[in-house]
Each structure stands twice: as structure tokens, then as C-alpha cells.
């Protein structure tokens, strides 16, 4: 919509800093561990996120070689759900604020 609002529509209420912190700009980061097989991590990424084999493998290699990988970013509530799910699959997953947003 343009800066001129259509008749009968109101502008959305401004978002507070707290609401913004809760809403957007969160990353799910998977950390390397000495326990899980690489093929297992690929399988988990495919099941949890629905990623294609190539993307899941690239993220797994990033975890393995660099010690961590941002596997998803978006709204905090969804990020928390993904991190919890990954932890249920016995992967070490943490949340970080996404400074780019």
C-alpha cells in the first residue's frame, strides 16, 4: 500500500522494540558435536525443515567443518519450535538474534 491509506483502512499500530525482538530476526544455529553421524544430521535437516538432500548436506558440512551453521532464520516463536525439535533429535541447537533484521 502507498503512504496514502485507502478510505476506511487504518495504519497498523507501531511495533515496540520488545515486540520486534520477539517477532523477527532470530536464527537457529546447530553446533557440531562428536556424537551424531553426518548422515543422521542430513536426515534430521530433511525431516525437520523439508530441505532437499543437497541443501541438508551443505548445512551439515558447514556444521562439521566450521563448528556451527545457521540452519533457519525468522520469527522467534517458529525459531524456538525448530530449536526444540532439533534438540529432541539430539542435535545441539541454539537461538541467536539475527542482527541483520
Q: Average pLDDT across residues?
A: 85
- Taking all Cα atoms into account, the compactness measure Rg is 18 Å
General shape: globular
CATH class: Alpha Beta
Number of strands: 3
Structural class: alpha+beta
CATH architecture: 2-Layer Sandwich
CATH topology assignment:
Ribosomal Protein L30, Chain: A
The largest sheet has its strands arranged as: 2-1-3
Give a short account of the largest sheet.
3 strands, antiparallel
Q: CATH superfamily, please?
A: Ribosomal protein L7/L12, C-terminal domain/Adaptor protein ClpS
User: DSSP helix count?
Assistant: 4
Distance between the termini: 22 Å
Percentage of residues in strands: 15-25%
Multimeric status of the protein: single chain
Order of helices and strands: HEHHEHE
Low-confidence residue ranges? 1-16
As for the number of domains, it is: 1
What features would you describe in this structure?
With 101 residues, this protein is an alpha+beta fold. It has one domain: Ribosomal protein L7/L12, C-terminal domain/Adaptor protein ClpS (Ribosomal Protein L30, Chain: A, 2-Layer Sandwich). The protein contains 4 helices and 3 strands, in the order αβααβαβ. The protein has helices at residues 17-23, 38-49, 53-66, 76-88, and strands spanning 26-31, 68-74, 92-97. A 3-stranded antiparallel sheet has the order 2-1-3. The protein is globular. The two termini are 22 Å apart. Residues 1-16 have low confidence and may be disordered.
